[in-house]
Queue: 2 jobs
Job 1
Amino acid sequence: MRDESSVWQNNGSLVILRGSELPYKCVKTNNAAVRRVSVQLLSDEEIASLVLFLGPRLLFSFLWPLNRITIEAPLSQAILAKSEAHRNIGKWMAFIGFPLFAIAWMCMAIGAPWGEDRDAVFGFLALLLMAGLLVGGFGLLLVWQSRKYGLEAPKITKSYAWIKGVHKDYLSSLPVWPGEG
């Protein structure tokens, strides 16, 4: 690991040289950290390409590797506890939503509970199908976001990453970014 002299501030962002170690204070609260946590961040461009072209992007990932960075972020107990709570809520939402989606889909596919009021039953199943997908999908999104601990990397280059979501007092303790050169 490189020392802390390869970490800077730049316009409200933390700039880090790949492989550098962050000062041992919580990056979110600027309070005492209890441990370092590996946080994998994708650049905004990567997230957009995954959302728009998920299938081809994953299929050809060996030709076009993801532009990401993994940092060892020091975090306080409060941030770790909050993230764990969000992760657990997201897991429960996915645990409830996706089986609900699957049951509604199977009932619609096999035409199970059709009675005299077929349209009402079909409408209810369609509502369950959409609710299950929405709740399950939002749960997975919550789990994914909780693993980032509120940090984002709008820009990642081969050598540096710009990280947003860092406490302003944490940033103020860092030297100003001299620029790539």
Job 2
Amino acid sequence: MTWPYWLKRQTYRLAVVMGLVDGILTAMLLAAQKILGHGTPVDFESALKVAVFALATAGFVFYIGRYADLRSQLVRAAAQLNLRKRGKLAATRLGRMVLGEAVVEALVSGSCSFVSALLPLSLAAAFPAAPWLSVLVSLFLLGLLGSVLGKTVRGSPGKWSVGLIAGGLFMTFLGFGLRIM
């Protein structure tokens, strides 16, 4: 088993990728002022609050999107099977399975978001004299994730890395301008 095995498996790929990227970008957006050395330094309490925020938003948004997608697949399948009652398939055991699958994937996405938001901000809290280190680590992680994703989906690892790093820089500048924290 290779280390990007979890990205090669279709089952949780979307949840893991969305969670990791969302957590890093949320941390960079919300704490941009602090991680760029303006205002008070990041403390562990702030890092934990941002990580919980990332967990809650990523988990909820992922759940809604994934459940709607899976349920619409059941509705389409029912139409293709010429079932008379619309939504009949979604009201069966398959519907409950879809609900459970969406909940599990939302938990995976939220957990990944929590960890990926907490890591760079905890680094900034641990090294208050060099808060910019968390920006570099975040950009490195986005670039690494982009490279792995590029290889996994048979795309250009360089383009994926540059795209994710550009998104990270954009969120940092946006957060700096908005002065959220």
